[in-house]
């Protein structure tokens, strides 16, 4: 039984009159792959946004590692080792693939701007060291051939891969993936699944992912959380989720 | 045929990270530097040096500063001339009141003063974006100019409001002739351009571009918004401040507020747009274009007079200049919004294949 | 007497603010309907005023001159749409902004090339003298012309407000401002819409040009009224017609009051920057202006 890495307790989030999340609680163990599923509008992305501090919940707490937070902010989340990708791809379109992945290393860079301007020993060495780390990720994700291409010119599937690379560059303890397979064909999905599982295997990163493709969810997750209208309606291993009546009802839109 | 990369392999990341990875580029730059440092001062016509090439370098430096802020960091600023003015006036004052400092340290301090002003007027960028920010920078432009003219301390209480820039003497060696001033400007601009290039290809540059492209995402991955934006304003204003000091000492010879009007801010903005936003080379290309344009137009009208006997009055010529200039800006934006720098890149790519078509 | 003087300054400021708002209206129109920040608005004001006054001075019938100038401005608007805007559809806002700066230069050069660069005076029949009964009764001097300009601005705002909110074309304009491509996809004829908008903006520029021409004379410096209108836009928001009026009133009043009461303390000349600093401080509290649309960054 692995230790708990992340614990969400009683989180409620509302935008004006719209209740996005109501009293959601669950936990994530280190090294596990946790899926969050649910019909559209269930609050999945909002939950992810709460986890890395983009939204602030009105109620509830988040415990990450040893520390408990009422309010996370994105900068602190990044510093703590939480990285994420976004549904609508939040890459820096004007920069190359390599540069985008290098930005993921920014919290590990120590040299100040004067050292960088003069390109002295420490700045040079640091840049090359992080270049090496970025190249390892590029190898891992098999995107060597596009490393100097401006990201804005890449097809959708490759952009998603680059975004994953940028998140990995931060060497996170927890990786939040918002629909990483959206808009991909079968081959691309298989590749992405392979990468996600490899990340979990090789780097031991805990992964929380939102996904609509049930096949993928059942295949790669250890445990699943199901949301509907902002509430948690199931929290179990994939086999049990498949059989749960509540989940089936939610997806088929049975009135409740 | 000439511009082939075949055989030039990079076997280390260090080699790959060079500013000029292609050997032909390195040779080209070396030649350019030799010409600039050794040939031009010896061969150059004193008039052209003083009236054309030195100001080109100075405006290129200011364009570089603005490019860092607007092209790389995405913060639109219309107050460039104000920062140059701060640099010019403070350089004058440092040399006047603390002559033991020396000229170069005075320039650096003047640049730092401009950077401080830049930080103050950059604070709104934490809350305001886009055009709202651009218009807010106009506040900086107008206020700074007013303050420099209103408070006599800046001009040492000169009755005319205009002061003469002092003689430049570094370690006993005087920089008086146009050729000497050109060399001094060249050295300073070259060093600062190199520093800028280094900065922009390091983490600082990446942070700037991240803020430009999607600042919400940038803060999510850990890039500090306030520090990054203020740093952009500070560095940019420093460059503009030094450019202003050079402008007063090595070009105009006087320190006058009228030289740093809104008009100049726009001119430098055009250098950045036409040259290419987000490109160091672009700043130089844009500055060259804008500096040479009136000369070219004058020559053209002179040639027209010689060939066809048609005389264009001075007033008409300046109106035509406005129209053609405006038209060129629109033309450039339609045809190549990424500016001359992009055109140069495309040329190089074509050169790689030359003489083959594809 | 202090109170009377204060009211006089305040009223003068408010009315000056209305004049600023007149120019700001042109900006708002174009921004609201095409998402373009038209820096050339000041040059358009100048061009319109210069054309009218030059025709009038050549002995043309005043109403004819007015109509012809209006036609010229409409042609100008259509030409701008064809030559400048159409090739730049869907470019980022900043590119379009730069293009309007280029347009400014073209217009400035063109105006002076055609009509010459001497200053002209402009008369519209309403004298710039204080309202008699106000100055007799309460010793407050408020110019008749200022009041007339305020009235004109009021009518203009009402007409434009109705136009945008109630008519089909107005709705189409708002759609276009939001998203060019989406508007195209729904079948809104982008080019026609833009031509209409720029023509209307030209009309507004003409009105502003006439008012300012009487006040300051028709000369090159008229192009700088655009710079005065910018702080108004900052306060009122770039997309709001009532915002332009309200912003104008605020800027006009504070600027005039500062000029009279604060100016002497710092040696005068603060009009060049005071409005901007006021707007800047305002923005720090409300980054999109009073009525500007909140810019939400979705990730």
Question: Would you give an account of this structure?
Answer:
Chain A contains ten helices and ten strands. With 256 residues, chain A is α/β, with parallel strands linked by helices. Chain A folds into two domains: 166 residues, 3-Layer(aba) Sandwich (Rossmann fold); 77 residues, no CATH class. In chain A, strand 7, helix 7 and strand 8 form a beta-alpha-beta unit. In chain A, helix 3 runs parallel beside helix 6 and helix 5 crosses helix 6. The longest helix of chain A has 20 residues. The model of chain A has no long low-confidence stretch (mean pLDDT 89). The mean pLDDT of chain B is 88. In chain B, helix 3 packs parallel to helix 8, helix 3 packs across helix 10 and helix 4 packs antiparallel against helix 5. Chain B has a domain of 244 residues: ABC transporter involved in vitamin B12 uptake, BtuC (Orthogonal Bundle), CATH 1.10.3470. In chain B, the strands form two sheets. A two-stranded antiparallel sheet of chain B has the order 1-4. In chain B, strands 2-3 form a two-stranded antiparallel ribbon. In chain B, strand 2 and strand 3 form a beta hairpin. Helices cover 73% and strands 3% of the residues of chain B. Helices cover 74% and strands 0% of the residues of chain C.
């Amino acid at each position: 039984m692995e230790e708990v890495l992340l614990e969400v307790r009683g989180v409620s989030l509302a935008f004006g009159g719209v209740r996005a999340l109501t009293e959601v609680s669950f936990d994530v163990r280190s090294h596990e792959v946790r899926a969050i599923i649910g019909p559209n509008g269930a609050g999945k992305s909002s939950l992810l946004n709460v986890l890395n501090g983009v939204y602030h919940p009105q109620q509830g707490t988040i415990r990450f590692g040893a520390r408990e937070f009422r309010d996370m902010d994105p900068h602190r989340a990044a510093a703590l080792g939480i990285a994420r990708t976004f549904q609508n791809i939040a890459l820096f379109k004007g920069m190359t693939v390599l540069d985008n992945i290098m930005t993921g290393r920014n919290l590990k860079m120590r040299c100040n701007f004067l050292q960088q301007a003069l390109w002295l020993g420490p700045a040079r060495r640091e840049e090359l060291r992080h270049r090496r780390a970025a190249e390892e990720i590029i190898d891992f994700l098999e995107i060597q051939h596009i490393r100097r291409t401006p990201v804005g010119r890449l097809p959708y599937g490759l952009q998603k891969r680059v975004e994953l690379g940028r998140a990995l560059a931060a060497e996170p303890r927890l990786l939040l993936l918002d629909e990483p397979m959206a808009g991909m064909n079968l081959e691309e999905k298989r590749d992405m699944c392979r990468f996600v599982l490899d990340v979990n295997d090789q780097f031991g990163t805990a992964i929380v992912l939102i996904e609509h493709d049930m096949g993928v969810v059942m295949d790669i997750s250890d445990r699943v959380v199901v949301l509907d209208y902002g509430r948690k309606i199931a929290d179990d291993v994939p086999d049990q989720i498949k059989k749960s009546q509540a989940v089936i009802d939610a997806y088929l839109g049975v009135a409740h | 045929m000439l511009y082939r990369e075949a055989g030039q392999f990079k076997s280390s990341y260090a080699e790959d990270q060079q500013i000029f990875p292609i050997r032909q580029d390195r040779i080209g730059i070396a030649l350019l530097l030799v010409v600039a440092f050794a040939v031009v001062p010896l061969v150059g016509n004193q008039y052209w040096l003083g009236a054309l090439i030195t100001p080109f370098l100075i405006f290129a430096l200011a364009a570089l500063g603005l490019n860092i802020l607007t092209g790389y960091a995405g913060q639109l600023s219309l107050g460039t001339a104000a920062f140059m003015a701060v640099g010019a006036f403070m350089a004058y004052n440092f040399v006047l009141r603390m002559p033991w400092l020396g000229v170069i340290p005075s320039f650096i301090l003047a640049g730092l003063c401009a950077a401080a002003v830049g930080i103050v007027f950059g604070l709104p960028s934490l809350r305001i974006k886009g055009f709202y920010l651009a218009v807010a920078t106009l506040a900086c432009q107008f206020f700074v100019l007013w303050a420099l003219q209103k408070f006599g301390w800046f001009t040492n209480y000169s009755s005319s409001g205009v002061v003469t820039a002092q003689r430049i003497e570094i370690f006993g060696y005087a920089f008086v002739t146009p050729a000497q001033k050109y060399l001094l400007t060249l050295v300073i601009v070259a060093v600062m351009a190199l520093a800028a290039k280094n900065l922009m290809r390091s983490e600082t540059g990446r942070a700037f571009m991240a803020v430009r492209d999607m600042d919400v995402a940038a803060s999510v991955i850990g890039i500090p918004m306030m520090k990054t934006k203020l740093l952009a304003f500070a560095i940019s204003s420093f460059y503009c401040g030094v450019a202003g000091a050079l402008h007063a000492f090595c070009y105009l010879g006087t320190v006058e507020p009228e030289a740093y009007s809104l008009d100049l801010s726009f001119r430098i903005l055009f250098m950045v747009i036409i040259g290419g936003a987000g490109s160091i080379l672009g700043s130089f290309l844009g500055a060259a274009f804008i500096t040479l344009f009136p000369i070219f137009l004058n020559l053209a009208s002179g040639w027209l007079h010689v060939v066809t006997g048609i005389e264009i009055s001075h007033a008409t010529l300046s109106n035509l200049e406005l129209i053609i200039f405006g038209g060129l800006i629109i033309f450039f934006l339609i045809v190549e919004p990424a500016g001359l720098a992009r055109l140069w890149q495309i040329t190089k790519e074509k050169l790689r294949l030359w003489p083959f078509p594809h | 007497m202090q109170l009377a003087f204060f009211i006089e300054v305040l009223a003068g400021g408010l009315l000056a603010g209305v004049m600023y708002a007149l120019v700001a209206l042109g900006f708002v129109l174009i921004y609201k309907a095409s998402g373009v920040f038209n820096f050339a608005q000041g040059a358009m004001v100048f061009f319109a005023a210069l054309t009218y006054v030059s025709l009038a001075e050549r002995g043309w019938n005043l109403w004819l001159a007015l109509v012809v100038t209006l036609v010229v401005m409409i042609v100008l608007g259509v030409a701008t749409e064809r030559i400048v805007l159409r090739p730049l559809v869907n470019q980022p806002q900043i590119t379009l902004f730069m293009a309007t700066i280029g347009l400014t230069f073209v217009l400035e050069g063109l105006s002076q090339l055609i009509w010459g660069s001497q200053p002209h005076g402009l008369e519209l029949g309403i004298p710039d003298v204080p309202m008699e009964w106000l100055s007799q009764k309460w010793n407050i001097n408020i110019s008749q012309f200022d009041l007339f300009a305020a009235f004109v601005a009021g009518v203009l705002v009402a007409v434009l407000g109705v136009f945008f909110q109630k008519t089909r074309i107005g709705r189409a304009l708002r759609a276009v401002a939001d998203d060019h491509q989406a508007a195209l996809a729904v079948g809104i004829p982008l080019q026609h819409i833009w031509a209409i908008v720029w023509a209307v903006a030209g009309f507004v520029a003409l009105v502003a040009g006439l008012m300012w021409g009487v006040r300051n004379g028709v000369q090159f410096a008229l192009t700088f009224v655009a710079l005065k209108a910018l702080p108004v836009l900052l306060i009122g928001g770039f997309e709001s017609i009532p915002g332009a009026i309200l912003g104008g009133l605020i800027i006009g009043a504070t600027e005039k009051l500062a000029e009279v009461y604060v100016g002497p303390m710092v040696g005068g000349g603060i009009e060049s920057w005071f409005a901007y600093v006021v707007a800047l401080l305002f923005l720090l509290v409300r980054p999109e202006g009073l009525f500007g649309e909140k810019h939400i960054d979705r990730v």
